[in-house]
Write a structure and sequence with these properties.
Blueprint: E1 7-8, E2 12-16, H1 22-29, H2 32-38, H3 47-59, E3 64-69, E4 74-85, E5 90-97, H4 107-121, E6 127-133, H5 137-145, E7 149-160, E8 163-173, H6 174-178
Parallel strand pairs: 5-6
Antiparallel strand pairs: 1-2, 2-3, 3-4, 4-5, 6-8, 7-8
Helix pairs in contact: 1-3
Length: 182
């Protein structure tokens, strides 16, 4: 089996990444519709470098996951925790859904729910944050839907396609996560 159900949701599961998927990740990460939202359009990427990054994550116990659709084991994207500080109880999360036809289907919200559950209930974190660029209204709506709140903004701090955009910082505290009303 190529993927393993480390964290399981209703329609997706999160699996340790597979080095064999490096080419697919590079295909997505060189698509400006994906890379602009990640802030990585300016980076030069290679399949070999992506393989090394995945291998490094797996060896170092980093919390990076493949997002996989349950019904057919299709790779949808990537997500994970970055800069986790277990002493302070904080981390930053990030994710992307690679193919346009898989966006706006609720997968992103489900991924975040799985990451929040894992972060607060298994990693014993207290504060989970993320950042998003002001042009990415779809992502901001998703983050707000699951309980993230804006906690800061760097005005015109990101340039893409010849325009300046704000970087919006968002967070959710453990207590806010546990007290959400659905």
């Amino acid at each position: 089996m190529k993927y393993f159900k480390k964290i399981e949701g209703e329609r997706i599961y999160l699996s340790p990444m597979n080095v064999e998927d490096a080419e697919k990740y590079i295909e997505w990460l060189t698509d400006k519709r994906v890379s602009d939202g990640l802030g990585s359009t300016k980076k030069l990427l290679s399949v070999e470098a992506e393989r090394e990054w995945i291998t490094g994550c797996l060896k170092n116990g980093n919390y990076q996951f493949a997002i996989v659709r349950k019904e057919d084991d299709t790779l949808l994207g990537n997500c994970g925790f970055n800069g986790t500080n277990f002493i302070e109880g904080g981390t930053e999360i990030g994710l992307f859904i690679g193919d346009e036809e898989n966006r706006s289907k609720g997968y992103g919200a489900e991924v975040i729910e799985l990451l929040l559950d894992y972060g607060f209930n298994y990693l014993n974190l207290h504060n989970i944050c993320l950042h998003v660029y002001s042009f990415n209204e779809r992502a901001m709506a998703c983050y707000k839907k699951v309980g993230f709140k804006e906690c800061g903004r760097r005005h015109e701090a990101y340039r893409a396609n010849g325009k300046w955009y704000d970087i919006i910082e968002m967070e959710i505290l453990e207590e806010e996560y546990r007290c959400r009303k659905w």
